[in-house]
Amino acid sequence: MRAMVVKEFRQLLRDRRTLGLLVALPVVLLVVFGYAANFDVSNVRTAVAGPHAAEVAAQLHAPFDVTAVDPGGTRVTLEHQLRDGNAAVGVLAGRASTEVLMDGTQLFAVQAARAALARSAQAGAPPGAARPAATVRVLYNQSLKTSWIMIPGLTGLILLFIGTLITSLGIVRERQAGTIEQLAVMPFRPWDVIAGKILPYLLLASIDLIAIVAVGIGLFGVPFVGSVATFALGAVLFLLVALGMGVLISTVSQNQGQAIQLALMFVVPQILLSGLIFPVGAMAVGVQWIAHALPLTYFVEVSRGVMLKAEPLVALWIPIVVLLGMAIAVLGLAVLRFRRDLAPSARRGSIDGPQPSAAPR
After folding, report:
1. Residue 230: pLDDT above 90?
2. What ranges do the domains of the chain cover?
3. Model pLDDT for residues 92-135, shown as the tens digit of each residue
4. What is the pLDDT of residues 164-223, one digit of tens each?
5. Is the pLDDT of residue 258 over 70?
6. Which pLDDT tens digit goes with each residue over 74-85?
7. Among 66, 77, 81, 256, which is disulfide-ready with 87 (CB 3.0 to 4.6 Å)?
8. d(CA 89, CA 109)
9. What is d(CA 316, CA 246) in angstroms, rounded to the nearest whole number?
10. pLDDT over threshold 60, residue 157
């Protein structure tokens, strides 16, 4: 038994990747998730419009962060601000009354804003501060259903699991089966092989996407009020990032165990840091930088915006462009890395491959 224990320790010390996964990763995840796991929103972006906009904006305090004051604005102006994600709360300061509009897709921001308005009313705030509490309307998710918020994001998370984990085993299987040498000596460019690996999974993942969205609409009653074309564009770009990352992981892994480890290290942080569960605005600044480097963050923005708020493509151009850039970068790295794998395999295939038989006498 002692000899087995010594052997296992020696093997573990040689495998630096597994050692780092066992020792360093839990500490990193605890620190990152400790800063990310926060439901308290202390900064609610607020737009104020109407004749008394300046007066009301001056009376709004934390957690309201007034980002726009438009004395000539209307209710339509505020609705566009909320729809496009520029604000979570819109205050229409009219001459006779005040109306507060809230974006129901930003669940925790709405809860923080409603609690602040309730505290202001109970404390007997000045008229300018109490006026916003007169009429409160929640848009896009009037009942504040959690399922309406979660399912559009869970759609992306499921696709991320499927796309990254399955494709991460592709090149590894070729390497372990010895067929990568056959690919190397065939008239294939690296891009041909990568595309051949990705396209079948892209088709299957697209079918999964349709099924998941249909279940969310039919079983949970989640609305789909936006453009199908805009949603499809964002979904395809997101799938290309996930599938490309799976192929990239496959090219740097020596076996299927390593591929699964790296795929999980890529997928798991996105569960808590993408805004799927915890609002990105409530995270620490350093963690927000990590969140903005994750593809699921942008797909959550696209899926919620299209399904719940009917955001047009013009309003979602930033996440769409970011996903496009990520797809190009990840697929480009996968091709470059796979080209390095093919070069030595091609040399081995040309040396060790079958020699032409001698001509018959």
Report:
1. yes
2. 44-139, 146-351
3. 988 778 889 999 988 888 888 888 888 877 665 544 444 454 68
4. 888 887 777 777 776 666 666 677 777 777 788 788 888 888 888 899 899 999 988 999
5. yes
6. 889 999 999 988
7. 81
8. 8
9. 26
10. yes
By the 10 Å C-beta count (0-12 exposed, 13-18 middle, 19+ buried), 80 is classed as middle
C-alpha to C-alpha distance for 91 and 75, rounded to whole angstroms: 9
Environment class of 203 (CB within 10 Å of its CB; exposed 0-12, middle 13-18, buried 19+): exposed
CA dihedral in degrees (109, 110, 116, 117; nearest 10)?
150
CA pair distance 247, 163, nearest whole angstrom:
10
Q: Mean pLDDT, the chain, as a whole number?
A: 82
Supply the angle between the helices 256-273 and 146-167 in degrees, to the nearest 10: 160
